[in-house]
Amino acid sequence: MLTNPFYAGIYRYNYRDESGKSHVVKAAKEWVMVEDHHPAIVTRERQNRIATLLQSRQRGLYSNGLTYQRKNTHIFAGLLRCGCCGSSMASTIDRERSDGWRPSIYMCTRRRRFNDCQNKYVSDITLGPFILNFIANMIRVSNSFGKSTSIETLEKKLLRGDVFSNVDHIERPGLEELYAHLRSGFDEMSFESTGVQAAESASQIQERDLLLAEKRKLERALNRLRSLYLYSEDEMPEKDYIVERKQLTDRLGEVDARLEEVEKLAVDSLTLSDEEFMAKASYFILTQQLQDKRYVNYERFIRKIDPQIVKDFLNSIVTNFCIKDGLTTSILFKNGLEIQFSYKSTE
Ligand SMILES: [Zn+2]
CA neighbours within 13 Å on the CB side: how many for 189? Predict the structure, then answer.
């Protein structure tokens, strides 16, 4: 699911019918697929080129010996929901560790204000490794998924690593949903790039739709005129036919020319700005690094990559994480998939 089609470097738009209230998926033939829209996950050559770019940018920004951690980015801020009362969780910075790292801690806002919720706080130290390793496992499993992969194997691969040793199982509904989507070739599961979606402005879509409707109307009129001239009992003078036809074809020519302009405009607006490109490139590096390692060392990972990038990445795929007594009880993804964890009892 994380691989297709977004991570294959293809951006798909005109995918959902947003004219009405419900978000209906359009017929496949109407989708517009932009290949090489952003860096594909697969090519090493490209990866190296982007890595060099990112490094040179970092050198420029952090030449004063500053490290990322000094910025105190709360990676999970805004993404955590209290598993006891449903409130959001507020972030603060924890004390400095001997190696200089200052992790974030997150606490139920209701508990903080009214002290009537019993949920414990959660720290980056436990949350980070759990989340990043789970997402890394998801990327790996979706890449290695085959038609013969069983749901039990899927679950085992998702929970691979010591960080999941206290997880008993993943609840069936979410696991089955993920399994079904992986089996169907993850077509419906792609995470959409919100930044790029906005690039296709509503007015362009509207004008394009209007032009297409007029084009179809003109084509139908031309066909009708032709049948009328050729087959009608009341004979149509040839001169009238030619005049009528010219009017219609002239207008059709204008519509076609404008359509071409509008479509070119839509493509141009899809060209990523430097900033967007760097963000996409960073996600690409990030996912590459996540899947390359058997175990993701969270602390080392966020020191190596800008924490803001990790934060943006999480925000682009996850709606929220539900936290109860220091444990991640569920992950709600942007596409509606909810993975719920059941823990071993600690008695
Ligand atoms: Zn609470």
Answer: 21
* Structure tokens belonging to residue 288: 């590459």
What lies within 8 Å, CB to CB, of 240 at 6+ separation is: none
Find the 73 Cα to ligand 1 centroid distance in Å.
23
Which among 202, 220, 244, 258 has a CA at the least distance from the CA of 19? Answer: 202
DSSP reduced 3-state for 337: coil
Cα 322 to ligand 1 centroid, rounded to whole Å = 11
The alpha-helical segments, DSSP class H, found in the chain are 44-61, 109-114, 124-144, 151-158, 172-183, 194-197, 202-231, 238-270, 274-292, 298-304, 307-317
The single-letter code of the amino acid at 344 is: K
User: How many A from CA of 329 to the centre of ligand 1?
Assistant: 14
Distance (angstroms) between ligand 1 centre and the Cα of 91 equals: 14
Q: What is the pTM of this model?
A: 0.59
- pLDDT tens, position by position, 71-103: 578 999 999 999 999 999 999 998 888 888 889
145 vs 167: CA distance, rounded Å: 22
What spacing in Å lies between the alpha carbon of 75 and ligand 1's midpoint?
20
CA pair distance 337, 72, nearest whole angstrom:
30
Helices (H), 12-150: 44-61, 109-114, 124-144
* Cα–Cα distance for residue pair 257/80, rounded to 1 Å: 50
